[in-house]
Specification:
single chain; two-stranded antiparallel ribbon; two-stranded antiparallel sheet
Length: 250
């Protein structure tokens, strides 16, 4: 049986209760209803007749009786409160103020509970998102559920700048016309950025420098035919300072 908070040491048993119960032909069911009404009126216990009365006839009768019992108890509490206030000289206005204060305190408590619940929901959502994104530990397994395969997020390789030795080796193996020291110093100074974006593939950047140098040297050769040697060198060096990888004429 479930228990209600509407409990007192006594209750009113109305004649209508007896009239309702009297219409039940089964004597055992009658006794059970009497007991159920008494248990609710004194202890606030709510019965469960589902096993013996699947049609809900007994529960319907009980609910009618329960409604009258609740009304009588509420009236009794109100009368008792007024008598108490009169005894201690508490007016209805003061009583209402006290009730309002209690209600405000209860609302504040409820607001705190809601805030805590929202934080809990946020934390749970964060965990769910982590699982959905396939957060993995160092061993490659899901850190929260080791037996669950992570599929939410693809493994992406983070960019790692090359060492000067790696750079020289790659340039030498492919016979690129690129100064390893100039390339390394240039991108080290700007944090390995390509424009405003982080570099993704340093080998591709090396190839770009190589192709740009070859193109620049061809242009320089054609230009020098119409300019003096000093003008051609000045032009090439100026381009080099504004365009990384532009060939240097000496």
């Amino acid at each position: 049986m479930d228990k209600s908070d509407n409990t007192l040491d006594s209750f009113v048993f109305y004649p209508s209760f007896r009239s309702l119960i009297k219409g039940i032909p089964n004597e055992k069911a009658k006794i059970m209803l009497y007991d159920a009404i008494a248990d609710y009126g004194i202890e606030g216990l709510i019965p469960d007749f589902s096993e013996i009365d699947p049609l809900g006839v007994m529960m319907a009768i009980f609910n009618d009786c329960k409604k009258l019992i609740d009304q009588a108890k509420a009236h009794r509490k109100e009368v008792s409160k007024k008598r108490r206030n009169a005894r201690f000289g508490i007016s209805d206005t003061e009583e209402q103020k006290a009730t309002n204060v209690d209600n405000c305190q209860q609302m504040s408590t409820n607001a705190d509970k809601i805030t805590k619940s929202q934080k809990s929901v946020t934390n749970v959502n964060g965990i769910v998102n982590d699982i959905a994104n396939g957060i993995e530990n160092d061993s490659g397994n899901n850190s929260l559920f080791p037996n669950v395969k992570s599929e939410g997020r693809k493994n992406t390789k983070c960019f790692s700048p090359p060492t000067l030795e790696e750079l020289k080796k790659y340039i030498s193996e492919n016979q690129y016309q690129v100064s390893a020291e100039m390339f390394f110093d240039y991108y080290t100074s700007n944090g390995w950025q390509v424009g405003r974006n982080k570099m993704k593939d340093w080998k591709a950047s090396v190839r770009q420098w190589h192709y740009r140098d070859n193109t620049s040297q061809t242009n320089n050769s054609s230009l020098s035919n119409g300019l003096s040697q000093q003008q051609a060198v000045s032009y090439a060096n100026k381009k080099r300072t504004t365009e990384p990888g532009f060939g240097l004429i000496e």
